[in-house]
Amino acid sequence: MKEYIKKIDGGVTAAKGFKAAAHAAGIKYKGRDDMALIFSDAPCVTAGTFTTNNVKAAPVIWDMQVIRNGAGCRAVVVNSGIANAATGKAGMEICEKTAEAMSSLYGGSRDGVLVASTGVIGMQIDAGRITAGCGELYKKLSDSREAGEAAARAIMTTDTHKKESAVELTLSGGSTVRIGAMTKGSGMIHPNMCTMLGFVTTDADIDRTLLQKALTSVVDDTFNMISVDGDTSTNDTYVVLANSLAGNPRIETEEEDYERFREALFVVSEDLAKQMAGDGEGATSLFECRVCGARSVTDAKQLSKSVIGSSLCKAAIFGHDSNFGRFLCALGYSGVSFDPEQVDIWYESAAGKMHIVHNGMGTGYDEEEATRLLSEDKITVLVDMHMGEAEATAWGCDLSYDYVKINADYRS
Amino acid sequence: MKEYIKKIDGGVTAAKGFKAAAHAAGIKYKGRDDMALIFSDAPCVTAGTFTTNNVKAAPVIWDMQVIRNGAGCRAVVVNSGIANAATGKAGMEICEKTAEAMSSLYGGSRDGVLVASTGVIGMQIDAGRITAGCGELYKKLSDSREAGEAAARAIMTTDTHKKESAVELTLSGGSTVRIGAMTKGSGMIHPNMCTMLGFVTTDADIDRTLLQKALTSVVDDTFNMISVDGDTSTNDTYVVLANSLAGNPRIETEEEDYERFREALFVVSEDLAKQMAGDGEGATSLFECRVCGARSVTDAKQLSKSVIGSSLCKAAIFGHDSNFGRFLCALGYSGVSFDPEQVDIWYESAAGKMHIVHNGMGTGYDEEEATRLLSEDKITVLVDMHMGEAEATAWGCDLSYDYVKINADYRS
To answer: B28 lies in which domain range?
Structure first.
């Protein structure tokens, strides 16, 4: 990591002027927080990427409008439990009512409120509960570390732990800005353009177009490179709010400070993407595939995603079984053309590194040793295609009994 | 089914002049048949479709040459246990030696022998065992029903039962021909151009180009419409051998008799494709998705395959859980553009038929009743897109604990 980027403990309240809150509104879950609010003391410029699923949840459609309009945004209201997808006109009305309830609390316009939902598709959210929840959230707002943590927990569904990340960035002129974020996501994770719910707050002063540009480029190499189950959700949302309260010289051109900001956003996003992949439903390990020696980055991405997306590769990782033919097979059906007799594969984990395939054939490695490597909680499969200089990394998780268990009866 | 097509009990020995045999050659499995031979009394014209995986097993490369050369083919030698994939030059030599051993037994050319393998990728086959196996198989050849059954069992890997199908077809002039077939396949099933191992024998007299044309068109609507786990194998092979011993007027033009033959081949192939999907690794049910009202057949295929390929839809079927949002979600990320608020969905099984989604939203159906429908061993999800007239059907299976169990430790 570059010397001007420093990881710090924190989440959405790490940057100046951002507050958060969590509340148990009884949307669907009992006895736990299921609503979260992010609030900025000053109007923000915003950028976002959203699901490419043709079936878009109502909050996704709402947020796309809010971001397109570009009115100074102040608040993000999130609920877990119900996705508000496949809910027709009634679903859009819930978004409007939520934004109205929230904006009336601080005396702003409803166009300045982003909303997001995650949970079961096809159920309606109770309007009374969600608007009452807005009032409670607003009362509880705090810029404390704990408020950020509580918000990160409130947006979880099948996640087993909260996901936060934050950095402090020093710009070329010496001013510092902060970027903090939280995400949720564990199943229905196969981002395409963006993934799951993710919220980034920053006190940087940055041009709106550049903010969107940085976000889009970062998402391509982070959230778009993870997969839990190949299912692209109806609700994927990743948004950034920048309130300019750091007072840095405004980032208005694609020069040094833009690059630094982009890198810092990358660090936060990659951190969260890996946290999400490793916490995939039922996962016992983070399964990383790094492909090098590809002809192009596009090829390298396609190859690495094919490996981490393969049910058979994922099941082999779960079984700590060095069935390397499955990795070759998944590379083979990725759609990228290559010479199978040039491929080399290594395993790497905390237990060591091992050469498994040379020129497309097994190296005659020690099976027990391979099993030992594959028994760690983070496994990397390194692939060298020997065709060029391009590389890419994708992240997934193993496929366990618990994935089936969680998803055979998610609604009850 | 048309009146000129009649299902009959049988497999690869159903058509005139075809014999079969099975043998325990000890390739990898212990105490079970693991080699099969199909043999024709007369030279055959052949057609085939093969995996689109860039990593092609040696036997696939061998068979593509044999079929391209078009030398009168007499024999197909199959082994289970080892896939002979990712085996380099040594793997190609195994194919040559097998074909040589077999052809020398009946005094033919090695170009007339097709070979096929299925099992673990990356292991070498012992040449001595497989050539010795050829001798034993040739001695045991028989045209009995039992010989066909034994061959169908010998080629199984994780399959729980053999897969055979046969029909008798009456051509327009009154002559009858037979088509018999066997397939294997349970995991690594996501055909693209073709799937798994499948062997069709027919005594029809038919032009080689028309035979290939019929095969290709049939495979597109049958084997290319099934998926167990999204993994396209390195060994997919589906070949037809036609020995002309029925003595029918040769099928040389794309007229009435060609159409009848194509239909009969479709009946056999669809039957086997559904048997394979329903016997997917760990499967407890056959999961069918029929999409109608699509703008084009291509769209209908893409939509139906997206649903049966979704891990979340498959897990819901396993749990008998009417989580209809997952079906909408999978339609949405299929890549086909449509209006979600026009979509209707029904469940259909032996227990009845039920309207679940109307205009993109839940109908308020009875949940217990839905669970009862989803508890049958064949479930159909019917989708009407209300956009056009095109339709297609895809077949898969549910995702169970046993899929994970089988694949976490397949090699041991």
So the answer is: 5-278
